[in-house]
Amino acid sequence: MRNTSIGLDVAGLLERVGGVLDPRGIITDAEAIAPWLDDWRGRWHGAAAAILAPRSTDEVAAIVKAAAATRVALVPQGGNTSMVGGATPPPDGSAVILSLRRMNRVRHLDPEAGLAVAEAGVILADLQAAAEAVDRRFPLTLGARGSATIGGLVSTNAGGTQVLRWGTMRGLVAGVEAVMADGSIHDGTTALKKDNRGYSLDQLLIGAEGTLGIVTAATLRLAPAIRQRAVAWAAVATPADGLRLLRRFEGESDMVESFELLPAESLAAVLAHIPGTRAPLTGAHPWHVLIEAVSGRLDGTAPTEMVEGVLASAAADEIIADATIAASEAQGAAFWRIRDSISESERALGPAVQHDISVPVSAMPTFMIDAAKACEARFRGTHASGFGHLGDGNVHFHVRAPAGVDPARWYAEDAPDISRFVHDLVTGAGGSISAEHGIGQMKREELARLASPARMMALRAIKQALDPLNILNPGKLVALAPARPGQ
Ligand SMILES: Cc1cc2nc3c(=O)[nH]c(=O)nc-3n(C[C@H](O)[C@H](O)[C@H](O)COP(=O)(O)OP(=O)(O)OC[C@H]3O[C@@H](n4cnc5c(N)ncnc54)[C@H](O)[C@@H]3O)c2cc1C
């Protein structure tokens, strides 16, 4: 049966791929599809008549060719943990989901070279475990590591909590294998150290949010395994003191990988709503910092020794009010659990609008305080605060609704104004409205409103050139008019 109501040939697409995919590769059962139609935050709801789940790069290429022939759009999906509705199909049913989750092989691990080739559907936690098994480590990590996939991490240029030392995916990806919009295959997995054949297709695909090609595998850089680790929790009076503490650590050692700032209210939310969590310090403190320092060696200065020294000097200079170093791996994990549970615990506090923003690192302490005050003054009854990756100049800036509002009305009417206000402040400070989550569908219009003409011209031209039929995740990141059937 042809899907005439939307003028698109989903049935034709399924017919073409039917001879290529195994029965598990074509899912049309509505109940099996349903969990993949909404985003992680439950803010975006899509419709799709099918999920296609290939097992190989050749199968992906066959799907893309069939999609081009039938003009049916594909929404690539990994773990579906996008924070910006990036992997949610459009609500009109005009696309099918292309799930990469069955392509979940670590093809190759080379501990000597420090490289791993992982397929797009490999879950981050599984890659981390595979690297550990050969005494190496994949250093990028984030709260969604149990679900997020390599393809999604590449396609969003994910950051996480170790960016301070290891950078984002852009720095950790040595090469990408991808199927382009015409079904051709780009193979960059040989990971050449030097390659100047013009534009880097690998780098274009990183952070492209599935709009330029389907990532099928990536070569990833591994780091030395951790031999020693120190996890510490410190209390500071202000974000500015937090930054002074970070600078002190940076002056002392390159072992610091994570430096996360959180206000007292984020800690309180976790303690109230996440069972089994305990405050690392006694007493009330307005701001908290979680620090992790690691070493890949057993000799030389131990991270604990370095952290102790810096915290002692910071205490003597009244940069910190109190601090503790985890006495065991389990206690360190308990500190991290607090940090990783902030988003989940805040859901219990009622409606809120989240902003994943960055400004220059040195400007962040002042920005956090001033932006919160400005927001609360402009939108009466709201409460604004930021937490996150202070060392990267990236915080998650959340604005909570006034008590007693109707959530649906507030999200529809007030939240967009609040986001525009926050994004104007960020843009005025020379920052970015998306530090690590991407643009997806949530921020597409804001990007078009605030980005420079040069950036928008380039984004649109690249999308138009590499996906002229607009079949790869249309409507995400940058809008192009869809190609009409027969074009
Ligand atoms: C609790 C939690 C914590 C998080 N913390 C962080 C954090 O600290 N830092 C951070 O950067 N992000 C964070 N995120 C966001 C999210 O985990 C990342 O964006 C992650 O990279 C998404 O991976 P995924 O496999 O779930 O991708 P999906 O959500 O399935 O897709 C994300 C985007 O990539 C595209 N895509 C997916 N796979 C492919 C592919 N193979 N080829 C082409 N395009 C593809 C999708 O179309 C979509 O646009 C967090 C999310 C959650 C839920």
Walk me through the structure.
By secondary structure, the protein is α+β, with helices and mostly antiparallel strands. The chain contains 17 helices and 18 strands. It has a five-stranded antiparallel sheet with strand order 5-6-10-8-9, with helices on both faces. A four-stranded mixed sheet has the order 1-2-4-3. Strands 13-14-12-15 form a four-stranded antiparallel sheet, with helices on both faces. The N terminus and C terminus are likely disordered. The protein binds flavin-adenine dinucleotide (FAD). Flavin-adenine dinucleotide binds next to β3, α5 and β10.
Helix residue percentage:
25-40%
Number of helices: 17
Write down the Rg. 23 Å
Summarize the main sheet. 5 strands, antiparallel
Strand content: 15-25%
Distance between the termini: 22 Å
Mean pLDDT over all positions: 94
Q: Bound compounds, please?
A: flavin-adenine dinucleotide
How many DSSP E strands? Answer: 18
SS-based class: alpha+beta
The coarse overall form would be: globular
Record the SSE blueprint:
Blueprint: H1 10-18, E1 26-27, H2 30-33, E2 51-52, H3 57-70, E3 73-77, E4 95-99, E5 106-110, E6 115-119, H4 124-133, E7 136-137, H5 150-155, H6 163-166, H7 169-172, E8 173-180, E9 185-187, H8 201-205, E10 213-221, E11 223-224, E12 228-236, H9 239-252, E13 256-263, H10 264-273, E14 287-295, H11 303-316, E15 322-325, H12 329-340, H13 342-346, E16 352-358, H14 364-378, E17 383-389, E18 394-400, H15 407-428, H16 444-450, H17 453-466
Helix pairs in contact: 1-3, 9-11, 9-14
